[in-house]
Structures are given as C-alpha cells and as structure tokens.
C-alpha cells in the first residue's frame, strides 16, 4: 500500500514545484488513495460573471501555503489519509449537458473505488453531475449546502441546467433525500418573495443568514447534525456563503455574509458526519484582486474537508480536545 502525501516542505520550499493541491502527487491511482482532489474547470453554468474555469488552478496555487497539521481539530491529516491530486475531469466549454456527462463519467469511478472526492469548481452547476456520480454508487444522499443562494430556481432563460437550478434538478432526479438535507446562509435580494419557499416545498430545511444570526453557529450546526443524522452526506460549499470582503473573487457576490473565520467554525463542527463527497465552488480568480484571498479561502475549505475525513478515519475527535 502506497501512502500518498504532500512533498516535504522542510526539504523543498512550499513555493516550488508543479501546482498540485497541497503539493500532493498527481496520479489516478485510486487503489492506494482514500481521498482524491479533483478539479472541474467548468463555468458555462454561470448566470452573471464567468471565469470559474480558472478556479481549480487558483485554488491549487493558493493551497501550497497549507500545512499538514490542523490544530483546531488536533489531526495530522496524512497520518490517517492517503490523498492524491487526481487532476481535472474533462469538460466541453459552452456545452453544459455534454460537460455534465463527462464530469459524471469522470467522478463515478472515484466513488466506485471507495475514494472520497473533494471537487474544486467550477461554477455551482457542476454539483449536479457530482451528485449523479455519487448517487449512482451510494444511493440518494443528504446534502449540506453552504451558500448565499438556494440554487433551487426552476429555470433561467427557459433553460433547466445552470448554477441556479442544480439542487431542484437533483431532487427531481432522486439524487438527494431532501428530508435529510439542509441549506444554510441564504441572503441578498431575490426575484420574488417566494424564492426560498421553493426549497421548503422541495422538502429541504433552509436557514437563511438572518436565521443563523438569531440561532448562533453552534445551534445552527446542531440543526445540521440533527437533520443529516447518520446518512451519507454530500457537503457543497459555495464561496459566496462568505462575505465579499473576504471572498470577492466569485460569480454572484452577496454582501452581509460570514467571515472566513466563521466559515471555518461551521466546517470544523461538522466532525462526525458521514461525508462521501464534497466540493468548494464559485472561485473566479480574475475577480480576486491582490492576495488571491478567495482562492486561499477555498484552499482552506478543502483543508477542513480533508481534516473532517481524516477524523472519520481516525474514529473521531478526542473528547478532551478543546479547540485552540
Ligand atoms: Mn451556489
Ligand atoms: Mn451562491
């Protein structure tokens, strides 16, 4: 059994080498992997700005800063996980349904091998083929979605597939169990007073940003855990969940959001959920400005996902551990 882990940054500096995620080996050896980082450089599903096709590249570049130990979870990720950078799934720019097919085909073997994919988007439209691939192997899934938008509209411009309709399509296709699924962080102006009701009608629980502010993060996470229970869950993190002050490089920013610190708290408290796949989407490096802070946020979100999966593998967080 080969254990794949990042290059040793005490031997070669972090700014050196080819830009894989966290300096991991670029291989498709699923037999020896627990987790695969996979890029999905597709942005034809976006309704406003475009440019998420460069998201995976931006996130991989920013990820070179990351280190293997997560003190907040007290876990050395690569003591418990063999992780590969699988490369990107194929896409056809401009052609969403054909891209969906190729993305699903690209991801399904990863699930079949028992490997957990962490997908780097791409606009949020890629969640549909991600869920098709995951559900083909695991059956219908619970969803935890962090996003300022519910993405449950029916259509845009008369078209059914784009980044604003994915979770409605996923329910229609039986990929999700809405009774186990929850959307968190919705805010911003809408087209109509009933827009969020569409999620409730589909069977999702929805806690808008105002609701999170009333409940607090701990209580919100308790609701998430209660909702999901022990179901197999897909966690989808749209970076516009975070305020544009911390994440400007995104497609449809909404002000009045969470800090990057709060996003970390949400993710860390998901420890124990049975995650079979996850993504971080909607990174548009050309709107990121100096410092690439949105790509850095997304790289850290993926690092938290790795930590959660490593905790699952280890058998949980030590009960005595207090988060520093
Ligand atoms: Mn979204
Ligand atoms: Mn969004």
Q: How would you characterize this protein structure?
A:
With about 325 residues, the protein is α/β, with parallel strands linked by helices. It has one domain (about 20-315): Ureohydrolase domain (Arginase, Chain A). It contains ten helices and ten strands. The chain has helices at about 55-65, 75-80, 95-110, 125-140, 165-170, 195-200, 210-215, 215-230, 260-270, 295-315, and strands spanning about 35-40, 70, 75, 85-90, 115-120, 140-145, 180-185, 205, 230-240, 275-280. The strands form two sheets. Strands 4-1-5-10-9-6-7-8 form an eight-stranded parallel β-sheet, sandwiched between helices. Strands 2-3 form a two-stranded antiparallel sheet. α5 (about 165-170) links the parallel β6 (about 140-145) and β7 (about 180-185). The radius of gyration is 18 Å and the shape is globular. The structure holds manganese (II) ion (MN) (2 copies). One manganese (II) ion binds near residues 149, 240 and 282.
Helices and strands in order:
Elements: E1 35-40, H1 55-63, E2 69-70, E3 75-76, H2 77-80, E4 83-88, H3 96-112, E5 116-121, H4 127-138, E6 142-146, H5 166-172, E7 182-184, H6 197-202, E8 205-207, H7 209-215, H8 217-228, E9 232-238, H9 260-268, E10 274-281, H10 293-314
Parallel strand pairs: 1-4, 1-5, 5-10, 6-7, 6-9, 7-8, 9-10
Antiparallel strand pairs: 2-3
Count of discrete domains: 1
Give the helix tally.
Answer: 10
> In the CATH hierarchy, what is the class?
Alpha Beta
- Within the largest sheet, what's the order of strands? 4-1-5-10-9-6-7-8
Q: Strand-residue fraction?
A: 5-15%
CATH homologous superfamily heading: Ureohydrolase domain
| Radius of gyration based on Cα positions | 18 Å
Question: Which class best fits the helix and strand makeup?
Answer: alpha/beta
The biggest sheet amounts to: 8 strands, parallel
Q: How many β-strand runs? A: 10
Q: What is the helix fraction of residues, given as a range?
A: 25-40%
Query: What is the residue-mean pLDDT, rounded to a whole number?
Result: 96
Spans of at least 5 consecutive residues with low confidence: none
- Which sequence of SSEs, written as H and E, runs from N to C? EHEEHEHEHEHEHEHHEHEH
End-to-end Cα distance, whole Å, is 34 Å
| CATH architecture call | 3-Layer(aba) Sandwich
Overall shape: it is: globular
CATH topology: Arginase, Chain A
Which kinds of small molecule does this entry bind, naming each only once? manganese (II) ion
